[in-house]
Amino acid sequence: MKIQYVEIDGLNGSKEFIRLDFNNDLNIITGRNGAGKTTILKLIWYIVSGNISFAIREINFRKIKLQTTDYSCIISRTTRNNCSLYLKVNEQDPIEIDDWVIDEEDEDEALEFLVTQLKNIADKKDIQQENPNSILSKHGGSLFLPTFRRIEGGVQAKRKNIRAGMSSSRRLEVSLMELSDMLTNRNHQFVASLGTIDIERFLRDKNAELVEEVTTLQNLSNLNMSEKLKELQKETNTEKVQEELKKIHTMMAKSEQRRVDIMKPLEVARQYILDILKISGIKIGNLTFGSAVETINSNLLSAGEKQMLSFLAYNAFYQDTIFIIDEPELSLHVDWQRILFPTLMRQNSSNQFIIATHSPFIYNKYPDKELVLSSDKGDGCLQND
């Protein structure tokens, strides 16, 4: 799924109407501090991830229309905690809710009201009863990387509260995990982590999935070859034996190529991580890339290296996913700011990137991908219109 455009009216009380038309690959939102870049990113992600209640509670806007390749969604605020919603998915009948109550102090009542509305729609149009948040989260996939996506732990803070039963670092880790889990819906992930903990778990889980798939493939291939060899033992025709042996060889080659294809995301991540970080080996959780002798633990990387590690790892495994990144330049040396998106785009990714940045080292490389909210981009100089 790709986001095609967004229209926002009354953002942060402004009278200005905002429309952003998105490219399928890279979109760079620029503007001074206070122009609304972060707010727009957050508002978009809250909707695509099926977190409409957070959008209504946290963000001041009158109306938003989000058009994707899968659906059209229009949300209009009616009161502080109420909104109307129009959601049309492809060729399906639209869902329309006139007065959706979103009140954190009485969520049970709000949910009951929503269910009633959906029942009425179902009775009239004979469609499946389903929460709009659930419908939205079922479509596509996304990653939201806010400015606080990667927080460094402190040794002193860890020692200070160790007697309390949980160190400060551990409490912070748990809090970030809870926040991420609360906002993550299906294939829409909110990234907030202490150090490289999220990357360690992500790569561990992905590696386990790939290994399981390869093991299943190899077991099936071995079974097929075993049956073929048993049949050959009974064969007396030499030419036919040679022909069948060639087929077995072809089968083995195809099986090996399939194994390589399955493990390709991990190999792509390995190659880019070692090349970009210019290291011989790295240990990320229980995985080791490169030389085991000259390995460095991912927790010992600099803040900028950890940022690059996360971008490269996530981008290697995700396809057709919307990456929403607030200030990707954080902690990155200017040389890495220059190569960040050329590198990510070179990973043969089909992902759509929507970012907000103040870095001229990023937006100057892609003038055709820039979406300007204000001529003053917050980089210290006023740009010409």
Could you characterize what this model shows?
The chain has 385 residues and is an alpha/beta fold. It has 2 domains: 180 residues, Rossmann fold (3-Layer(aba) Sandwich); 103 residues, no CATH class. Helix content is 46%, strand content 21%. The chain contains 11 helices and 17 strands. The strands form 4 sheets. Strands 2-1-4-5-6-7 form a 6-stranded antiparallel β-sheet, covered by helices on one side. Strand 15, helix 10 and strand 16 form a beta-alpha-beta unit. Helix 1 packs antiparallel against helix 2. The longest helix has 40 residues. The chain is globular and about 85 Å long. It starts with a strand and ends in a 13-residue tail after the last strand.
Instruction: Give the spatial strand order of the biggest sheet.
Output: 2-1-4-5-6-7
- Strand-and-helix sequence, N→C? EEEHHEEEEHHEEHHEEHHEEEHEHEHE
Described by the principal axes of the CA atoms, the overall outline is globular
Number of strands: 17
Task: Please state roughly what percent of the residues sit in beta strands, choosing from under 5%, 5-15%, 15-25%, 25-35%, 35-45% or over 45%.
Answer: 15-25%
What do we call the CATH topology of the largest domain?
Rossmann fold
Q: State the distance separating the first and last CA atoms.
A: 32 Å
Mean pLDDT: 86
What is the correct CATH architecture of the largest domain? 3-Layer(aba) Sandwich
- Going by helix content, strand content and strand pairing, the class is alpha/beta
Assigned CATH class of the largest domain:
Alpha Beta
Uncertain spans, ≥5 residues at pLDDT below 50? Answer: 124-128, 154-163, 381-385
Number of domains: 2
- The oligomeric state is single chain
| Share of helix, binned | 40-55%
